[in-house]
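Lab manual, section 2.4: Encoding a predicted structure.

Procedure: take the sequence of the chain (138 residues), apply the prediction step described in section 2.3, and record the output as structure tokens. A sample record is shown.
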Amino acid sequence: MLADRKVDGTFDKLLELRTETAGTIADTFPEPGKFLPVCKSIRFEVVIAQQNTVANFAAGTNFWRFDLEVATTLNGTYTPVASWTPTTGTPAKTRLIVNSANVTSIMPLAAYVRVRAIRTVAATDPVDYYAFVAKPLV
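Recorded output:
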């Protein structure tokens, strides 16, 4: 998957939101926040990739959702600003194009970003994914 990052855009280790080798998780889990001064940009892009097959996937009942969240401080209250829900249980990847004006309308001083995997109540299979900011702030 690392080779895919050349296709996905510029990769900066400091803006890796979840590593490819982090392993599976079985319940809703937020990753640590990363400093990204959203209010000083026009837009940024985030790649999120589900690496494993969710065997008992069922649209609307048994699935995982991935939220991109922002906060003003590292340990502050995070608010979702974009999300992705895979449409199948097979490995998949998306690129979220995030408009900074939209983010700052929700949280004007947003300076930290993180990704959170959210398990639906019916989801029984763990998920393995990675995420990173794919394009520098423009």
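Check your result against the sample. The mean pLDDT is 89.
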